[in-house]
Design goal:
547 residues, alpha/beta, 15 helices, 16 strands
Length: 547
């Protein structure tokens, strides 16, 4: 079957971004139509050399999501004939045996999905290029990565207006919308020169879906330098978010490209190859939660732990040492007075309502019980980091929990350690910036230590441990870092940046390595390496509580 690719650009861009990819697809025998969506400052059909820009409404600031959906529908109709013409199921009706593949990049996936919902019988496949799969009733604004940018249109919507435009980024501002890794200086110059304002109505109008598009096979192309790869998506699916369950369907596939958010500019030939393979139904398929074994976050804790009672107070769980004390904390043997505490903070984002909840994950409860077995008070905190925009709320949850812990008479409030996991790593920043005297140690296990590109955090974000460490006007608390050797390159880069900043500050850092460990561990990792590393990391934290 000869595919017909309809390529839809993202925010601020027009059909020109697809030129390199379109040439390679055409050379492979495919037909290509690149669409320029309506908006001020964008070329109309015939105004420029871009591939078929298509007929579209006059570019005005009043264009909205519905305008763009209609334009993609018109592109489909130009290939297949008028709606209601010949055709059947399977997405090839009226195309002379060719399958239409709708490709959306960034914002462009919203009009692509809206059009596929109205022409489902004519579309063979939907391809989302470095973009999530939109949900019914959710406006595209929710997918805008830059959290500060979200605020401006949201204010307009609250005022009851969808008129106006969002100015395009300047040359140095594209990273607010995604990683520019791999994009040449020349390509970035051209991207900036041709950028056009984005009508606010395209971001504020909710996407309305009938459900018909759910039957269309779908492929996601993940650009790993932008922060997300297939393994990370599988881990999110394993957390049990109902909204992600559809990603495990038999018609859903995934590819990775080791590049930034604009693969049509950074690696057009590779992207063309992936699109051709997607059209052929190839790609990686995710598994439903638990279908391929125990998810990493539910894998058993690697060390034996005592069976201690749990004391639950709100979002905080306490595990107290047995009366009489145990070995581990200096002077704990036989002492029943206040003990130092290690507060363990889970990562995320974690879907709201995930079952089991993080406080009941074996890795979190296991660390707390193990610390209690060594004579300290082990504490777990459950916070509300459900989205990358929730870091301020999660930070407040953690701070309140620490106050609760220090106020307990069984805890020595002057000897506290905080231990952060994975995506909880950015919460370290507050404690690095203003460490209280009672904070004896900060620890992190396979952490994210700087915002990832697709998080949309500004350069001066509060939740940036690398910068917080570099900018601190004081010596940081002693640090313990548990590092995995098989970390994703994007997260590993944040750890390397943190250690470089620590070296410049001559900070005390104890690095404990799991050479063959993956992020979060799991059934395939060497258990003996994890046992030794966790034992060593906990010992290092307890030693600093004693110092």
């Amino acid at each position: 079957m000869e595919p017909v690719f309809i390529l839809v650009p993202g925010m601020f861009t027009d059909a020109h971004v697809w030129e390199g990819t379109a040439r390679r697809l055409t050379a492979a025998g495919a037909q290509v139509r690149a669409v320029t969506l309506a908006g001020p400052g964008r070329p109309r059909a015939g105004d420029g050399p871009e591939p078929d820009a298509g007929a579209h409404a006059e570019a005005e600031a009043e264009a909205d999501l519905e305008t763009h959906i209609e334009e993609v529908c018109a592109a489909i109709d130009a290939v297949t004939g008028a709606p209601g013409g010949t055709g059947g199921t399977g997405g090839t009706g009226g195309t002379g045996g060719r399958g239409i593949v709708l490709v959306g990049h960034d914002y462009g996936v919203h009009p692509v999905l809206g059009a596929a919902d109205r022409r489902a019988e004519r579309v063979a496949r939907i391809v989302c290029v470095d973009a999530g799969l939109p949900q019914d009733g959710v406006p595209p604004l929710a997918a805008v990565p830059d959290q500060s940018v979200r605020a401006l249109p949201a204010e307009e919507a609250a005022a009851g207006t969808t008129a106006g435009v969002l100015p395009p980024p300047g040359r140095e501002e594209w990273t607010r919308w995604g990683s520019t890794a791999g994009v040449s200086e020349e390509a970035l110059d051209r991207l900036t020169a041709r950028a056009a304002p984005q009508p606010l109505g395209t971001l504020l109008r909710p996407l309305r879906l009938s459900g018909a598009a759910a039957a269309v096979p779908t492929t996601g192309v993940l650009c790993t330098a932008n922060g997300v790869g297939i393994d990370m998506v599988q881990r999110l699916v394993d957390l049990g978010d109902p909204a992600l369950r559809a990603l495990t369907g038999p018609g859903v596939t995934f590819f990775e490209l080791p590049t930034g958010h604009w693969p049509m500019l950074s690696c057009p030939e590779d992207l063309a190859g992936v699109l051709l393979r997607a059209a052929a139904g190839e790609g990686h398929r995710l598994t439903p939660p638990g279908a391929s074994g125990t998810p990493a976050h539910l894998h058993p804790f690697p060390l034996p732990v005592p069976e201690l009672p749990r004391e639950r107070r709100g979002n905080v769980d306490f595990y107290f040492p047995r009366p009489g004390g145990t070995k581990g904390v200096k002077g704990a043997e036989g002492v029943d007075g206040p003990r130092p505490a290690v507060v363990f903070v889970h990562g995320g984002p974690v879907p709201a309502g995930a079952e089991p909840s993080p406080r009941d994950w074996p890795v979190l409860a296991g660390h707390a019980r193990y610390a209690a077995g060594q004579g300290a008070v082990g504490v777990t905190v459950e916070h509300r980091l459900h989205d990358v925009a929730d870091y301020p709320r999660a930070a407040g949850d953690v701070a309140a929990a620490v106050d609760l812990v220090r106020a307990d008479p069984r805890v020595d409030g002057d000897r506290i350690a905080l231990w952060f996991f994975s995506g909880g790593g950015p919460l370290l920043a507050d404690w690095l910036a203003k460490p209280p005297a009672w904070l004896r140690c900060l620890a992190a296990a396979y952490p994210v230590l700087a915002p990832l590109p697709n998080w949309g955090m500004s350069a001066d974000s509060r939740f940036h441990p690398v910068r917080a460490l570099a900018d601190a006007g004081h010596a940081p608390p002693p640090l313990v870092l548990l590092r995995v050797g098989l970390e994703s390159p994007e997260i590993a880069a944040t750890v390397s940046g943190f250690l470089a900043a620590a070296g410049e500050r001559e900070a005390e850092v104890r690095v404990v390595d799991v050479p063959h460990g993956h992020h979060g561990g799991g059934p395939g990792d060497p258990e003996e390496e994890w046992r030794g590393a966790v034992r060593e990391a906990v010992r290092a934290v307890l030693d600093r509580l004693d110092a």
